[in-house]
Amino acid sequence: MLQLILKDTVTPCRARMIARGVKAFLDTFVTSDVLFDIELVLTESCNNAALHAYQGLPGELEIKLDIVENEQVGLQVRDWGREFQCPWTLPDNNQESGRGIYIMRQVMHTFDYSRVEDSNVFSFTKKVEPEQWKECI
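The structure assignment produced for this chain is given below.
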């Protein structure tokens, strides 16, 4: 297993950049269809931390990436901002936000949220088929 831990300061402007950086690292290992889903989840997670946990102010963010060859990619996104009330159902059509969690749950194989030691922890796994791995592994 290969593990990458990234610690950074997240802001609304930096959220997408952080997700793209992790995606660029993963591009060495998995195909673009897997990357698309992971980038979506990372962008949404980082953006949620910036906008909701830290209310647009700079805040600490940690991303753990676990690559298990020929099996899966695991992600953990952690912030130390305000506690998050994780929606477990799709919001009504008239609501302007709240669909991100639902979308993340649809594109990943597992999804979990927990509040751990004054932090919000989002954990995901994406199963990766043998043909979706690049040869460098």
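Interim note for the steering committee: The mean pLDDT is 90. The chain has one domain: 2-132.
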